[in-house]
Amino acid sequence: MNRLSRRMDARLRWRAHDDATIECWENPRIPSGYTYLLQFVAHDLVHSSMPLSVAGGLSADTANARRTALKLETLFGSGPVGSPSVYAQDTPNDERRTKLRLGRMRWKDRDVEPGCPFRDIARTPAENVTGIDRSIAGKRTALTEALIADPRNDDHAIMSQLTALFALLHNGLVDMVRRGEPSTGPNANLGASYRRFLCARDALTVIYHNVIRKDLMRRTMHPSIYSAYSDPIPNFIDRREQDSWQVPLEFSHGAFRFGHAMVRPEYVINDLSTHDLNKTLEKTSANDPVNMPLDATWIVRWSRFFEIGETRPNFSRRIGPYLSDGLGNDQIFPAFDQTNRVGLLYRDLVGATLAGLWSVNALAAEIAVRRPDLVGASRLLADRPYRVSRIRAWLASEAAYGGLSAEDIEAIANDPPLPFFILFEAMEEADGLCLGPLGSIIVSEVIFGALADNEIAAGRGAPSLAEALAKLCQEYYPTNVFAEVPEIERMDQLVEFTAEIADLRQAEPAFL
After folding, report:
1. What pLDDT is stored for residue 187 in this prediction?
2. SS in 3 state form for 216-284?
3. What does the angle CA 113 – CA 172 – CA 123 come to, to the nearest 5 degrees?
């Protein structure tokens, strides 16, 4: 795996786009905001206390602690009672909490001021029992703690900004509910606040599911596989009873690692600044607490990440067996074994080998039996000798990288690690613009399966978002408090609606 990861350090030779202003490695089909929506979805599906590559084997530390899939547990935690630090108090006199905490941004080289807008996640200092203080005495307090339900949502600046986006939308929905709910007596305040929270949370979940189903999956899956799974009742290959189903390791440690290949080497964050990937990864409360909260140079303008207006967004990187150099950062992804190999790519490959995944050969053969229609159009899946020959040729094509022996090449070509093959297949079968068939099947089985199992009852079978929200409101209120919510099927629509209800259309720095 060490040598294979080094072979994957060689830059890929993509064909040029028709538009010469787009770099050959860029993917205009998938703006870069979807890279981080995929990461957000991954956090909403799987949460373990320790990476498998570090733990060295499957154990309680690597078990998935998510109780439900795709129910925004990564954002809401256990709710206002179970995760109170994630929520802001509604009133000074009681325990009601319905809105997610947010924090003020700051202007560059200045402290946070009362007029600064709430455009960052909430962050706070904490006195350390060990006596370590990362503050700069007399100048700046270290905000070492991110007040969010899932600490991974502060893995880097773009991730924390996406988390703040969803929090802004939830808080705006809470305000919509408050305006439309009936007045209640003084003794009903606590019950009314929980009803308000639950209604807004469920509405955001319905919107989130709609965007995953109709936007994220459509962009990232192979068109033929998306067509097969996007029906209201997909014909799943592998379904079990809901209470016994878990996110399969072939997804979490195999196919869904493809998002790492989409990460760009740098990002235009807004009109003020462009930051390289290393700086972006290091911009967290854990790594840079004295420079928190985020200042104006890190507050995302969302038209740089999704297709909004006339602004060209940062495009994601085409999907193939190569990762941006920043994901080899030895401070963030240090060596953990005797190879001294640093970086995220090696961790992905080692984690897959430790997880005991089904092999590519076994997966292709089993799918061919159960759903021959899904593999028939892919020679790479249907024809094993052809698959071996294509992988063999690619591995041998850059002799200066990796130092792979002839024996290594034969071993990998005949039994490729699943994360590597998913990237290789995307390059071979889809020109890097989306996943190939096998990657799409694994991801679709899990994502569409989780949506089917965990759909909000009001959204089940609803022909539109408007009808789903109207039905949802009936569970809580006599009137439709979400009558003004437009149809939201894409991330650009979600961002623009958030700007509207959070009064951010004219925000400084720009939100849209």
Report:
1. 45
2. HHHHHCCHHHHHHHCCCCCCCCCCCCHHHCCCCHHHHCCHHHHHHHHCCCEEECCCCCEEEHHHHHHCC
3. 40
Buried b (16+ CB within 10 A) or exposed e, 427-451: bbbbebbbbbbbbbbbbbbbbbbbb
Largest CA distance in the chain: 78
Distance CA 340, CA 483 (A): 57
The dihedrals phi and psi of 11, each to the nearest 5 degrees, come to: -65, 145
Bridge partner residues of 145 (DSSP): 124
CA distance 436 to 430: 6
Tokens of 345: 């790519």
pLDDT in tens, 103-154: 999 987 777 878 889 999 999 998 877 878 888 877 788 999 999 999 999 9
Query: In b/e form, how buried is each residue of 217-229, taking b as 16+ CB within 10 angstroms?
Result: bbbbbbeebbebb
Question: Model confidence over 16-58: pLDDT tens digits?
Answer: 999 999 999 999 999 999 999 999 999 999 887 556 556 566 6
Nearest residue to 6 via CA among 254, 278, 259, 343: 343
CB 30 within 8 A of CB 315: yes
What are 216-248's pLDDT values in tens digits?
A: 999 999 999 999 999 878 889 987 665 566 889
Q: Are 236 and 445 in contact (CB under 8 A)?
A: yes
Length of the chain as a residue count: 512
Three-state secondary structure call for residue 124: strand
